[in-house]
Each structure stands twice: as structure tokens, then as C-alpha cells.
From TrEMBL:
Keyword Membrane (UniProt): yes
Protein name listed in UniProt: OpgC domain-containing protein
Sorted UniProt keywords: Membrane, Transmembrane, Transmembrane helix
Xref: Pfam families: OpgC_C
Low complexity compositional bias, start-end: 383-399
Regions that span the bilayer: 12-30, 50-67, 79-99, 141-160, 195-214, 226-250, 276-295, 316-334, 340-364
Amino acid sequence: MFALIRQDRDLRVDFFRGLSLWIIFVNHIPGNWLGLVTPRNYMLADATETFVLLAGYAAGLAYGIVMDRQGWLFAASRVMGRVFTLYVAHIFLLVVFTAQVGYSAERLDAQAYLDELQLDPFAREPYRALLEALLLRYQPSFLNILPLYIVLLAMFAVAMPLLRRPWLLLGASAALYVATRTFDWDLPSWSGEGWFFNPLGWQFLFFIGCALGYRPPGGAPFTVPYRRWLVALSLALLALGVVATQLLYFRWDIAEQRLPAVLARFLAGIDKAAMHPMRLATMLALAYLAAHFIPRTAAWLRGWAAAPFVLMGQQALPVFCAGIALSFLGRVALEISDQWPMQLLVNLAGPAALTLIAALTAWYGTEKRAARRGAAPAAAAAGAPAGAAPVVANPLPAASGRDSG
């Protein structure tokens, strides 16, 4: 496993992205006991916020380098190529997930699967549902993260030149965020209720990640320096979030009865769809503490316990897609029995399968890069014409996060 991990990257990013993928798998299985200890139960930010912030960081790092070397149009074309890859992956996952859930609903006589996972339109209007899904206007449950990422990357392709002026980029992004929350802007959906993850709100977190990831040639990167008062503020914010989470999701009766009406309304308005400021602030506080208290050279990031998460984080797209399908299998298994033997089986077999998929993907990528590197000397030995373009194995650096999900 260790031989498949690319060590010349910021392994903190890969570890937390892999951890987020595992948490998403766990949270998508109703009745999973591990779901009781995931971050969504204790703070106003969870794996999705982590995933989006790190996706922005990887995009700013990888494509910012391409832009500085080969220009904006070339870099934008690379981004749109990634958008197309994500779109194809989303449609493939939609077909697999719909077939998986539909077959299970028929065989197990469980119509509730279709209703709960919002796949019932395929039973009522299959052709219209397919069209709306292709247009990203219809997103069944669990299939709304990739459409969000697709739109964010498309926005990034246009805004990429602003990476060189991070405060202008963040100012424009913040203005769109405020306008979105003020005027309830959203992208159109088939249901008319808007997107589950509103890209116009989530783009602010994504572009913060882009600004942090970009490394200007010959200049200092955009950073937030260590300050004791910022550490104290971050810790206080996280403590406040713990209380708010417990009241909002587990003890709302206390919030209604004992809190002032204004405060209770504020808690009730903490939404995830358009990235409520409290959720945004919580994620930024977590990122600030992690960046300053976990050194890039931390030995544990290269240890055996972190290795599966680092490997999954480096192969995020196939792991995410597989995790969606496996989580439904885990749900069916726990509906057969939710006692500790089945709990143990689901929570060991699932991550093991995801790690295996990551390992196979990494191995294939290593073999492909080796073949490309070997092609260059072979072409030279065969007498390539003078001035011919060299064979480039990978225009992105090894630490670029090109394979981000």
C-alpha cells in the first residue's frame, strides 16, 4: 500500500479528503452505529464542507501552476476536461445507483427505497426523469455532490485569472455569497425547490480553498498567519457549534422552550443548502486549527493507520462513486440485522473495499505514468524529428492533486 501512495504531496490534504470519503460512506447508511460519532453530530460542519474546501485547494494548486506556465485558456481547457470527466462519472453513478435501488425495491418489496432516495420519478416519468438528470436539474439523494463540484469547477475555469489577485477573487465570491443568501438565488431544478447544495452559496468556501492552494511564481502564497487570538476564537466557535448542534438536531424542545425567540429562529435558520455563515465559519475554524497544529511533515501521516485514508484521498473520484453504491448495500445488510456482527462486517468490509479500489486505481495510474515515461526515450531512439514536441507524462506536478474527486 505504501508504495502506491505519492509521498511528494501535502498528505494532510489527502488524509482529510480520504477521511471525508469514509465519513460520507458511514453517514449514508441508516442505522450504522458509527454514524453516531461522525462530525455531523457534534459540529456545524461535516464531510461535505471538508470535501469542498479541499477540492478548491487542490484546484488552486494544480491548475494555478498550469495557468502560470501555459496560460489561462490552456488551463481552463484542462479544468473543463475535468468537468467532463466528473459529468460522465455522475451519469454512470446515476445509472448504477438507480438500477441498484430499483432492483432492490422490486425484489425486497420495498417501495420506500424509491421514495426516500427520491428515485420515484423514474417510476412515474422515466423519460422525463432521465432528461432532467442529464441536465443536472434532477438529483436523487446521495447524487448531489458531484453536480455541485461540476458547477464549482466550471465557475473556477472562468474565475481562474483572479487567483493572481486573491483579495479580488474572495471579494467577488463573498459578494455573490451574500447576494445569494439575501435574495434566495439558486440554480433551477425540476422540482422547483432548488439544488440540495446551492452552488452559488457553496462557491465561497470553494474559492477560499482555491486562494489558499494557489502558489504564485516568485511570490508569497495567500496565507492566514498564526495568531493566539485566532486560535482562541476558533476554539470558542467550535464549542458554540457543539452546543448549537445538540440543540438544533437533538434537543430542539429545549431550544424552543428556554431560548429567546430571536435565538431560536437563528438556530432554526442554520441551513446546509446555501452554506449558512455558521457552517462556513465552523469549517474555516477547523481548517485554521488543522493547518497550524498539524505539520506537513507529521510522521503519523506516513504511518500505517493513516495510509488507507491517504490512499483514498489521492484517488477520490472512484472511491466516492464506489462508496455511494457500497453504502446502499450496507443499508440493506443492516436492515437484515443491525446487531454488532453485521455492524462489524459492514464497517470493515466497506472501507476495505474502498481501500482496495483506491489501491487498484493508484496502481493503474503508476503503470500508465511509467509507460509514458518509457515512451519518450523510445521515441528519441527511433529518431524523432528535430523540434518535435517532447512527450510529457503529466503536465501537473506530483503534488497537484490532479486526481481530486
